[in-house]
Design a protein that fits this description.
325 residues, alpha/beta, five-stranded parallel sheet, three-stranded antiparallel sheet, binds nicotinamide-adenine-dinucleotide, binds (2S)-2-hydroxybutanedioic acid
């Protein structure tokens, strides 16, 4: 129906309307694609999260094995694993508070994220449909690429800010945890817009250009280094774990939890770009206040101009996919 179609358009959604405080004490998180390169370390990190009482792992292969392994770790959450047999997907998502989706095919050298669309859009659609059916109140967060087309709220922008703070600290010789670089827009090539000027860091034009390029193509750096065996998994798992934890804190009533997220956004709607990543205050409803971008340098304004048409194309691709279903 229309509501489902709309949700799947862009893959994922803030679906939850009301989050009761009692639910906060019994928090189930489902990971779909849990046996993969991202899914396994992400599940490991989530097993360490004291706010989670039940970790449900689903994959088309080997999720029960990963779950058995993690279940021996002496943190308090229960871990269960499901395969497609015996309604595994249904059981994995039922009663989940948050559903994280790293299922799908990763890039090989020479591929763009967009080349993954045909395979991954179908996977995300099937998983999001099941989630909508069996866990209509859950929040979903999609990692599967190309996220500009497949998701509506995701942690990939977290990966971009994690990378930026590391790359800037390498250049400046500082501690990366003190470098907070906002990245807005989307998550592929020119749609990734680092707002380095707001950090107060001073770079030469050449340094700034090289740094921006490295942030925009950080994913390619890993794809190339992994030489055909996949793309970023560990830094992505770290980023997804951070985002999930921030969302859990906000759902538990903490104010002022801000993460960059790719969401349905009014910021550039007038230019026909309905989804955009910027700092978002997370809340009991998922997305709270969407922050504007703040002051931009001329260089960043030019990056934004280059990003908007590409983002518009990526979003239209996701929308068309759903309308053709
Ligand atoms: P991977 O191949 O190692 O793991 C993917 C897992 O998904 C596999 O275990 C596979 O069995 C499972 N899977 C496939 N179809 C499924 C289905 N229908 N239901 C459940 N599980 C299914 O890949 P990976 O390295 O973990 O990457 C996964 C996805 O994440 C890729 O699309 C990749 O491009 C994307 N990614 C996104 C970001 C980001 O910033 N958003 C970063 C890194 C990777
Ligand atoms: C990344 O930025 O590392 C991910 O989007 C994976 C990729 O394909 O580069």
């Amino acid at each position: 129906n229309q509501f489902h179609a709309h949700r799947i358009v862009v893959g994922v959604v803030i679906l939850k309307r009301a989050f009761s405080s009692s639910a906060a004490n019994a928090t189930k998180v489902a990971v779909l694609g849990a046996a993969g390169g991202i899914g396994q370390p992400l599940s490991l990190l989530l097993k360490h999260n004291e706010s989670i009482s039940h970790l449900a792992l689903y994959d088309i292969v080997n999720a029960p094995g990963v779950a058995a392994d993690l279940s021996h770790i002496n943190t308090h959450s229960k871990v269960t694993g499901y395969s497609p047999d015996n309604d595994g997907l249904k059981h994995a998502v039922t009663d989940a508070t948050i559903i994280v989706i790293p299922a799908g095919v990763p890039r090989k050298p020479g591929m763009t994220r967009d080349d993954l669309f045909n395979t991954n859009a179908g996977i995300v659609k099937d998983l999001a449909t099941a989630a909508a059916q069996y866990a209509p109140k859950a929040f979903m967060a999609v990692i599967s690429n190309p996220v500009n087309s497949t998701s509506m709220i995701q942690k990939v922008t977290t990966l971009d800010v994690v990378r930026s703070s590391r790359f800037v600290s390498e250049l400046k010789g500082t501690d990366p945890k003190n470098e907070n670089i906002l990245v807005v827009g989307g998550h592929s090539g020119v749609t990734i817009i680092p707002l380095i000027s707001q950090s107060g860091a001073k770079f030469t034009d050449d340094e700034l250009k090289a740094l921006t390029h490295r942030i925009q193509f950080g994913g390619d750096e890993v794809v190339k280094a992994k030489a055909g065996t996949g793309s970023a998994t560990l830094s992505m798992a770290f980023s997804a774990s951070r985002f999930t934890n921030s969302l859990l804190r906000a759902l538990n009533g903490e104010n002022g939890v801000v993460e960059p997220a790719y969401v349905r956004s009014p910021l550039f709607e007038s230019k026909g770009v309905e989804y955009f990543a910027s700092n978002v205050e997370l809340s009991r409803e998922g997305v709270g206040k969407i922050h504007d971008l703040g002051p931009l340098s001329q260089y960043e304004k030019d990056l934004l101009e280059a990003a908007l048409p590409e983002l518009k194309k990526n979003i239209a691709k996701g929308v068309d996919f759903v309308h053709k279903q």
